[in-house]
Amino acid sequence: MLSRRQTLTTSLAGIAALGGGLVGVPAVAAPPRTTVVVEQTLLKALPGKGDALGQFLAANWLVMDQQALDQGLFTGFWLARAETGFEPWDYAMSVGYPTATGFEDPATAKGFEAIRTGHKTVLIDGQGLAQLGRIVGSQRLDVVAVRGFAAQV
User: Fold this and answer.
1) HEC string of 25-39?
2) Domains and CATH numbers, the chain
3) Over the stretch 101-151, which tens digit does the pLDDT of each residue have?
4) Model's pTM, two decimal places?
5) pLDDT (tens digit, 9 = 90+) per residue, 71-107?
6) Is 52 helix (H, G, I), strand (E, B) or coil?
7) What gap in Å lies between CA 141 and CA 88, rounded to an integer?
8) Nearest to 32 by CA among 77, 74, 78
9) b/e map of 105-138 (b: 16 or more CB within 10 Å)?
10) CA nearest 95: which of 74, 114, 80, 110?
């Protein structure tokens, strides 16, 4: 199964430590919806590109994800970085969805495609995803319970 991230080409602000702030929330955001499925995309930075990959994700993926959240396509999203020295992956991008089909829900896929098409990719030091890292895995998780999970960035 291809994740939504694998369907993105180079058109793949964000976390303050990575440089940038999230785009502003529109005056009228979609009402919150229950998270049914979380899809995770795991990324590994190329040697010496860990910080730049994080900056790229913040400037591109998080910006598009915020728009999808505002439109009610997503129920939430977060980007986590593995501790230094962790080998399998460097970043885990998690996105919550209101339907069991996650990104494959036709309305979600269509809505996100419009967001992706309208997004102008922000390069980091002239480099995009292909020069900064690789997607090394993805998984869909059925949500069993959620309570009080929130992060401030």
Assistant:
1) CCCCCCCCCCCCEEE
2) 34-142 (3.30.70.100)
3) 999 999 999 999 999 999 999 999 999 999 999 999 999 999 998 776 655
4) 0.76
5) 999 999 999 999 988 899 999 999 999 999 999 999 9
6) helix
7) 19
8) 74
9) beebbebbeebbeebeeeebeebbbebbbebeeb
10) 74
